[in-house]
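Q: Could you fold this chain for me?
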Amino acid sequence: MVKEYDIIAFGTGSALNIVSEVVRRWPEKRIAVIEKDIVGGICLTRGCIPSKMVLYPAELLAQISRAHLFGIRARIEGVDPGLILERTRNMIYKESGEIEEGLRKHPQIDLYKGVGEFIADYTVEVNGEVIRGEKILLCTGSRPFIPPIPGLEETGYLTSDNFFFELKTLPKRVAVLGGGYVGLELGFFMAMMGSKVTILEMLPRIATQEEPEVSELLRRELSKYMDIRVNHKAVEVSRRGENKVVIAEDTVTGENIEILADEILVATGRRSNSDLTKPERTGVMTDKRGWIITNEYLETTKPNIWAFGDANGKYMFKHKANYEARIVFYNAFLGTRMAADYSAVPHAIFTYPEVASVGMREEEAAKKHEILVGYSRYGDTAKGSIMMLKNYFVKVIVDRDSYRILGAHIIGPYASILIQEIVNLMYTKEKNIRAIYEGMHIHPALPEVVENAFLNLREPEAWRKHIH
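A: Sure. Below is the predicted structure, expressed as structure tokens.
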């Protein structure tokens, strides 16, 4: 027997933004919600929120380590990483439990816990039950990509999926495979808690999505707390007594090094869940990596099926998924034709220092526009000088003719806050810097470093001479 629904929603992350609005407006609609993991979505249960819960104490420790610069003699009496992790787990279970209870009690919603697999057009099998939906929302998420390294599966490892659930005590030595934001953030947390952390990045620099000068300064700063090895690729993993052993190859020289660890964290990127849900069986096309193909309106190749969030493989951030959920709601349920605009998707890395970026990098912008580049150091503002923030900086890129903002990149304390002024302007019709020139910036306060970057616009060659 096939059970019929008006809507089938995959996932309990940003898909619930749409579900909540639908049940508020249309009390007659029946909705099936499918969740293969703990209820709440990646952000709440194993991503943004729990990672920031452990990173804030790490940031406090980094701040305390600078106290002596200001004549403050501070001493850390002790750190309890187990308590921090327990508090984080308790939050996950509490919030997830409340969401699940709300879904189960709602008269319009049926919650299916398990992997939903398409078996025919608009038809899904989950836990042996067959359901069919008139409209389908594919917010199917993603999962960690595990590289095929010999011995890795047998030796055992952590990923961001199980980090907050299985890590009960802090390992003394940790090998982190991957120098992207996940590896850097969780590695930074463990390092500040007292672990000896080694980060292995196979590419020439960490945080490769950032500007080269941002990546380089971030590597120098984080190297105060962790051993960061770029151009190093893990090629074999094994056990030796109580130790886990990682063999890493220097991709430049070809030489191997051996790293002893108590735990391994794999943070080598994300992969699609389409191999589990099999959307091709309902006529939804995917690319060669399994990411669901959508048009600018987030429609898939099958009518009445939309994909958003991690499922389409674009900018895997919670705020982007929420943005897309709003677009899908308008297009799928209000009959509009709203296109997604990815020209100003911001992101941040929550280490110390923070990194935040939006829009184009300089190299990309220079291929499409005649550009000017603005640059300003924190330490060249009054508040930055007061805080003894010497090397951190803001870099902005604008179109030389229209002064339209093309991109911005910040490394330093509160970068994720400082960039918001720029993000908001990039979402206006003009995307112009005039408001920054004309608006007053509180003095002395850190937003002046953003203002100064726009006041320091130069030709690309000139700004490079200036920075050096």
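A (continued): The chain has a mean pLDDT of 96.
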